[in-house]
Amino acid sequence: MLNHVKPAEMGADLQRRIHTATTERSYDQVLLGFGLCGNTIVDLVCPIPMVIPRVHDCCTLFMGSKERFMEAFGDHLSMHWCTGGYFERGYNQGDSNYDWDALSPGQRSAHPEYMQWVEQYGEENAAYIWETMYSEMGTAEAAYIRMNVPAYNDTACEERFSKMVSEQGKTVRILQGDISYLDALINGPWDDARFLTVQPGQRVRALYDMDRVITTQ
Which residues, 6+ apart, have CB-to-CB distance to 153 below 8 Å? Predict the structure, then answer.
């Protein structure tokens, strides 16, 4: 199982999966449903064109655009968040004792300052600096993202998440999500503003900004 808490291991796992998929069958291209995710995709290569959304983590995909993500999270990038599917498959079935540090894996990686610290000092030291400087971030609220496709919404999940949030002394902020970014990833078009197309032989590199996010070398 892919583990966001250990981005180096997850990146190696992704690389193995890309290699396996492209050697066992013939494809025109790979669509990677990942963002930068704590440097997880840095150095990935693919023998065929690979399309990656220019996002720091999947929250932007659920919000529909980088602009809507920044509007909702720009002043509190460490705020925990959830969607129906995410809660259903990853949140211990609503366990009220769930580790809140794991509710939004990779959330700090949405902040370019944090990723610069990772580059300079390593993951462990960067996490320490972040917690020291922003110890109060993300403690008051947790966001639940309602998608704009009825089939993707589960009232029971939202209610259970809200209960869990309340038991942790937090309040819930309901955000309206948008499936359009995910739809574009699957169906195109893969415009350069929203997607990076990695050509065979190129490696993924991080920019750590809030616009381009990733590039190739």
Answer: 84, 146, 147
Longest dimension (CA), the chain: 51
Q: Tell me how far CA of residue 44 lies from CA of 76, 104, 124, 165, in angstroms.
A: 30, 23, 22, 36
Give residues with Cβ within 8 angstroms of 78, minimum separation 6.
104, 107, 108, 111, 134, 137, 138
Element (H, E) at 173: strand 171-176
Write the pLDDT tens digit of every residue in 145-185.
999 887 777 788 889 889 888 887 889 999 999 999 999 99
CB atoms under 10 Å from CB of 140, counted, come to: 12
Q: At residue 94, does pLDDT exceed 90?
A: no
The values of phi and psi at residue 211, to 5°, are -115, -70
Length of the chain in terms of residues written: 217
- pTM here? 0.79
Distances in Å between the Cα of 208 and the Cα atoms of 75, 86, 116, 117, 214 are: 17, 25, 7, 11, 7
d(CA 39, CA 50): 17
List, in order, residues 6 or more apart from 194 with CB less than 8 Å away.
53, 54, 65, 66, 181, 184
Instruction: State yes or no: pLDDT of 93 exceeds 70.
Output: no
